[in-house]
Amino acid sequence: MFELVESKHKQMVNGVINAFDTSTLAFTSLYFLYVSRDWIYLYLTLAVAAAIAQTTLVLLIPESPKWLLIKGRRTEAIAALNRIAAFNSNS
Question: How far apart are alpha carbons 17 and 66 in whole angstroms?
């Protein structure tokens, strides 16, 4: 995903990703402390959220231009690079 981010914003994006990872642990701890000790509802909720997030990423994030070049799909790689450049120029 860092291919979609300008160099000057990569540190901020990395911080957001780390904060999200930390918030998962905090959410789980607070759930067990204040809501319920039964883990099945938390597990099902997180499994559904993960499936939705994965599906969204698969649909929205373009394939890596490097991977496309390795697979010999040069035209698609150039198109992916153009999409990334257009996205970065609008940011």
Answer: 23
What token pair was written down for 7? 């160099």
Please determine, for residue 75, whether its predicted confidence score (pLDDT) is greater than 90: yes
Rounded to whole angstroms, the Cα distance separating 62 from 77 reads 10
What ranges do the domains of the chain cover?
A: 1-60, 62-91
Amino acid making up residue 34 = Y
Tokens of 65: 């231009």
Predicted TM-score of the model (pTM): 0.47
Cα distance between residue 41 and residue 72, in whole Å: 45
Beta-strand ranges (E) seen in the chain are none
Residues of the chain by 3-state class (helix, strand, coil), percent to 5: 85, 0, 15
